[in-house]
Each structure stands twice: as structure tokens, then as C-alpha cells.
Amino acid sequence: MPLVSFRDVQKIYRSLQGVDYPAVEHFDVDIEAGEFFCLLGPSGCGKTTVLKMLAGFEAPTTGEIVMQGRPVTGASRERGVVFQGDDSLYGWLTAVENVEFGLRMRGMARSERRRRAMRFLDLVGLTGQEQKYPAELSGGMKQRIQIARALVNEPTMLLMDEPFAALDAQTRSLMQAELAAIWRATRTTVLFITHDIDEAVTLGTRIGVMRAGPRSQVKGVIDVALDGARSRTDDVFLKYYRQVYEMIRDEVAASLARAR
Amino acid sequence: MPASAPHRWWSAYGGYVLGFASLFVIWHLASRYLVSSVLFPPPSVVFAKALTLLRSGVLLEHLWASIQRILAGFIAGSLLGIPIGLAMGSFRPVRKLLEPYTEFLRFIPSVAMITVAVIWFGIGEASKIFLIIYTTIFIVIINTAAGVSAIAPNKIRAAQALGATRTQIFFHVALPATVPYILTGMRLAMANSFTTIVAAELIAANEGLGKMLWDGRMFMLVDDIFVSLVTLGLLGFAVDRMFRWSIYTFAGKYSPAT
After folding, report:
1. What global pTM score does this model have?
2. Which CATH architecture has domain B40-251?
3. I need a labelling partner for B193 at 20 to 30 A (CA). Which of A154, A220, B71, B97 fits?
4. CATH topology of domain A4-78+155-259
């Protein structure tokens, strides 16, 4: 049984003028425990909508999302979330206090939660920065806090919404390598939203390519049979890149044509 | 090369010192050579008078009366305004219900309420404190409510995904995220309190800086009027600095940007 199943999920947004916009329709996908599932699609295709529904921030209009046999009805600490921007961090708390947040809400003793938070700050390479406030840290470091804050809470699954999209190219590439290493060490199930083919092939064990919206759905899923650290110059990497590229090319064109 | 201590002090406060010095120099020149009238005393005369009034205890008595009223009304107004603002920002029905009050009453200036206050509460302390509460509460409510609605939705969502309950989200996310807005509202309210207290004391009071102004007019004590004016300016400046300093020290990390 898959860890998560989207079953014929539809999401309709209604504008202030009362016009319905079907963002996703007949969306079906299964995510297995332990995999790194990348959901790839052109901008505006409803990727983030899918993540918000699985996180429990928004309910599907029709259809259902089932996790471990139970329908998703709201946010839960079983599903940790890493957001694209840094506006989800608490600016009045230090890095370590941000990471401890979930444990503190659970009522864990101070020394124990501090110990755990420090371990995860270490995992994301932020040792020595724990007493700094988010405003004092770079964009990459802030995303590391978000990752540590989600992981220390021991979620069954991690949802990441284009977490590196706002970073510069060098930092992004470094963060991708570190995330891959963290994932290999923890094997937490990940749903990773991205519009970047290179990022999807670098990180994913499976890549779901979405159609251009409206009424977006999964066009196809590609298994990435690459183990360990991946190199952009490998022939196999390029083979997957080309395969994904050919699948998404028409969708990007469709998305651009509509935006015009 | 590290800057020396006096050098650092000068670069931090030098501008202020020069600014204040120029203010008094211009005042002095204007009253001596431009106007040259007993109706516009130079700073030296005003400070001499201030010293006399300080020694006799009269100035402190007026000053303390005004400060007490401002503090009592300002603290009460803030303590009432913050929870109301939080409730209005958090719950749409509460906002709908209370907005007519805030949107109607905030356009009636506290100065206009002086007559009503005196009729209701007499010329004693109660009417002054009522007026300061009145001038404080709406600005604190509006700023607090605006702060709550300005919270980034992802801050709330992150807390939900980390397992926080609604109550926890209120106390650990919504409240601290609103602190800079609350403090800004309080700072603006403090400035309003000064305006209001002087106006109220001008009209009905037995002591206070406003009463001092009124007596000065009645008995043509021009020097007394200027002592009161300078005291008001210095007191307001000092209180505002203290506010900014406490915002900076206690809540500098509560930056609204993050």
C-alpha cells in the first residue's frame, strides 16, 4: 500500500468575481514510503496547490487524499512542510528556538528539545549559528533552519515547496547536494515541488511531470534509477534529463502561450 | 584602527548636541535682536525662571501632576486596547461588531470630548484619565488589529504543520508577530496623550503643565508660559526616546520584516 494516494483529486478556486478556476482535475498519484518524489511542472500548473492539499492547508473540492489509510483532513505534524520563502520563520526566535518550536508545542522538556534541535542544526550544517536570529542569516541558512525545524519533529513525510527557488545558483546547487545527503541518511519520504528539471533529476527517485494548467494532472511518472551522489555530467543523468525535458517541453510551451 | 570612545560618542550624539545648541542660539538671537520684547523672553531668562520654579517645587508639582495623568490613562488605554485589537484582528465577527465604534469614535478628537468629560467626571483626575484613555485606546486597537492581519499566512501554516493547537498559535505566533505593531501604536498614542493632557488642563485643572500655561496667560507671567512649553518639549522628547530605546532593546528582534 502506498504511503500517500491522491484519488481523483480536483481543486477549484473561485475568484472574487465569482469565476471558477479548476487548478487541478483528475489528479491521481501514489507516493511510496521512503521515496523522494519530485513533482515537476511549468509555472502556474498547480504544483503548490497539490502540496497545500496534502499538507492539509486546503481541502480538495472533490476526490480525496489518503495517507496511511486515513483521509487527510487538516494540517498534522505527520507532514512537515518547508516553504519557498523565509516568511514562515519566526523572526523573534533564534535559529535553535525556531528549530525547537514543534517540540516545545508538544511540551518536551527544555534540555531534551535543545539537545535534539542542536543535533538537527548540526545535520543541516548550522552549528555555531544557533543563537542568531533569522534576519542575521543568509537565504540559504534560513532554508536550512526550515529543513531542520521540519525534520526534528520526526514527520512521516516531508513536503517541500520549491525550497531553493529563491536562492542564487551556487547556493542552490550546494543545498541540493546537502539535501540529497540528508535524505540518504534519514530516508524520510519527500514530496518535492520544483519547476527545475535539473533539480528534479538531481534529487528525485521518481519524477511526476504535470501538465500545464488549468485542469492540470500528472502527465507521466519517470523512475530515476540513479543511486548515491549524482553528477550532472554523467551520461545516465543526461539521459533522464532529456527524457523529462521531452515530456515537459510541450507543457511549458502551452503555459507560456496562455500567459501571453 | 578602532574609533576612540569620545569619537564614537560624538558620531552617535554629536548631531543632537549641535541641533539642540542651534535651537537655543536661534531662540536667543531672535528674542534679543529680532523681537526684543518682554513677550518673548530669551532662553537665559526662561532657564533662570525654571530654576526658581524648580527650587520652590512649583514646577515639579505641575510636571508630576501631568505625568501621573498621562501614565495612568496611557497604561489603562493600552491594556484595554491591546486585547480588543487582538480580538478584532483575529475574529472577523468581532471586527464587524466593533468597527463601527472604532471607526466612528476615532474621528471625534479627544479635545472635543473635554466638555463631556468634565460634565461626566468633574474637573478632578477622573476626567483627565478618561480623556487620555480615550486618546490612547483607538490608536492602539487599530494598530494591533492591523498587526494581526499582517501576519504572513505561512507563519500560521508552519505552526499548524508542526502540531501547534489554535491556542498555541495565538500565544506563540500571532501575539509575538504583532508586538512591533502594538509598540508603534503605543508610541503614537503617547504623543497624542501629550496633546490631550495640555488641552484638558488648560480648560479644567488645579495643577499640571497646562494649568501653568493658563495661569501664565491670566497673570501675564510670560516667563512661566515658556518654562511650561520647554518642559513639555523636553518631557515629550525624553519619553519618546525612552520608548524608542525600549522598543530597540526589548523588542529589536521583533522586526516586522521577518
Report:
1. 0.81
2. Orthogonal Bundle (1.10)
3. B97
4. Rossmann fold (3.40.50)
